Amino acid sequence: MATAIRIERTGGPEVLGVGEIEIGSPGPGEVVIDVSAAGVNYIDTYQRGGLYPVPLPYTPGLEGAGRVAAVGSEVTGLSVGDRVAWQGAPGGYAERALVPADVVIRVPDAVPDEQAAAVMLQGITAHYLVASTHPVAEGETVLVHAAAGGVGLLLTQLAKARGATVIGTVSTAEKADLARAAGADEVIRYTERDFVEATREYTRGEGVAVVYDGVGASTYEGSLAVLRPRGLLALFGASSGPVPPIDPQRLNQGGSLYLTRPTSADYTRTRRELEWRVGELFDAMANDRLDVRIGGRYALTDAAKAHEDLEGRRTTGKLLLVP
Q1: Which PANTHER family match (predicted)?
Q2: Same domain, yes or no: 256 and 307
Q3: 3-class DSSP string for 16-70
Q4: Same domain for 305 and 217
Q5: Of 169, 186, 313, 317, which sees the most CB atoms within 10 A?
Q6: pLDDT for 238-277, tens place per residue?
């Protein structure tokens, strides 16, 4: 038996109960992982609240890291004792997780477990946004909302590494300092100044090539307004709530704009693509080119507190549960 967080019904953080689950032996193509760290993500709150329906009862957590405890048949390249991380399979909020081997990646010695767990979803998200959704080109100006958040700090660093000028939005002075330390060229505290006005002023009316927007309802209209002609709005999250339907004519009026709502699953459709993205992230981390900030560590039994802090925007960087 393993201690795990269980959701029996959808609702607020209070529905994150603690229970015992039987993991059992791995089947064909599966491995059992002793979890050393599990990432906390906004998608976990969407599933918990019912916005993204999942079968109940349910153990949340779509990423984590640890050591292989058991290997099923038809699994190659993984052995008991290997340090690994995974993404895209549920069950991370637990002492042990049963995971399909095809979403598991071996972790190099130079990357600690916590940092590995921290980038399997947010790092992949940042990577596909700057490398694929809108391949950032040297000299472009981009806008990153929530630039001191888990994805935002990684996005800022990866965009800067590709030669971009980065504008970040944040809510507090502390978060502004973190965004600047990550490389942001201009930081806008949206609690003090309208980010649309500030962005237009900074770009001298030209606008930005792309807005990376994980906030959603409260920012999307402004995000569209600061794009240059033929610019792209990448809506990759909705921490302030889902975006209502958008009239395509709005994109025409803004200058033949583009709009996309990407998701990690579509950018890791093949094993080769998954290995490419994670490999580049791990290499950057191992060689000190990518700093992964752990903003909060919580005991497994404090999962509800982690969700409360995340949804209350009281956090920076990555939140982890540590069984």
Answers
A1: QUINONE OXIDOREDUCTASE PIG3-RELATED, QUINONE OXIDOREDUCTASE-RELATED
A2: no
A3: EEEEEECCCCCCCCEEEEEEEEEEECHHHHHHHHCCCCCCCCECCCCEEEEEEEE
A4: no
A5: 169
A6: 889 999 999 999 999 999 999 999 999 999 999 999 999 9
